[in-house]
Design a protein that fits this description.
Helix content is 15%, strand content 38%. The chain is mainly beta. The strands form four sheets. A seven-stranded antiparallel sheet has the order 1-2-13-10-15-8-5. A four-stranded antiparallel sheet has the order 9-14-11-12. A two-stranded antiparallel ribbon has the order 3-4. It binds 2-oxoglutaric acid. The site of 2-oxoglutaric acid has 11 residues, from β8, β14 and β15. 2-oxoglutaric acid (AKG) binds next to β8, β14 and β15.
């Protein structure tokens, strides 16, 4: 398992058949919506579909919008347990994202909202098409170089971001011109009372 201080990935974390069944259940069963994002003071449609899921008190402010959580679907309860056990701490919410094809994407950002706390553990489970995930340092190093890492996220992989990952890096899931099928990503988070 390749490790870096601020993230770790386990590529075959969920068996492929379990991941197939989960992807199908979520794709057909979640109330997917297009979130609105505020970028440079302008409201735009997010280039993907999303669903915020969590315990009733786990409301989340994301890109200027407050999301009340959708209740946990039965299919996600064992996944929440297993991901929490892998992370060594209980998650009370998950942002589900559906990337319908290579045109859907996630722009540069850090998950650094105050309700996540200063050094959040965020566990990111990928289902479906492999997509490229990119991390970029927020500040140049002593030589003026911006550190950059590219990680392929295959079906059933679990990426754990932790420590100073959000404070030191931004991350993105870029568009791709390659023909790719749909992908669901689940980013488990612990929302703290603020
Ligand atoms: O889809 C992904 O792997 C990235 C998701 C993400 O960056 C987020 O939900 O904050």
């Amino acid at each position: 398992m390749p490790a870096a201080p601020h993230w770790i990935i386990e590529r075959d974390w969920m068996p492929a058949d379990v991941a197939n069944a989960l992807a199908e259940t979520l794709r057909d069963g979640l109330p997917w919506t297009r979130h609105r994002l505020r970028i440079f003071g302008r409201e735009v449609d997010a280039p993907r579909l999303s669903c915020w899921i969590g315990d009733p008190d786990a409301a989340y402010r994301y890109s200027g919008t407050r999301f009340a959580p959708h209740p946990w679907p039965a299919a996600l309860l064992p996944v929440r347990e297993a991901v929490s056990a892998a992370a060594g701490g209980a998650f009370n919410s998950v942002l589900a994202n559906l990337y319908r094809d290579g045109r859907d994407a996630m722009g540069w950002h850090s998950d650094d909202e105050p309700e996540l706390g200063p050094r959040p553990v965020i566990a990111s489970l990928s289902l479906g098409a492999t997509r490229r995930f990119v991390l970029k340092a927020r500040q140049p190093d002593a030589e003026g170089v911006i550190e950059r890492h590219v990680i392929e996220l295959p079906h059933g992989s679990l990426l754990m971001m932790r420590g100073d990952c959000q404070a030191r890096y931004r991350h993105a899931l870029p568009r791709t011109a390659k023909p790719v099928g749909p992908r669901i990503n689940l980013t488990f988070r612990r929302i703290l009372p603020v």
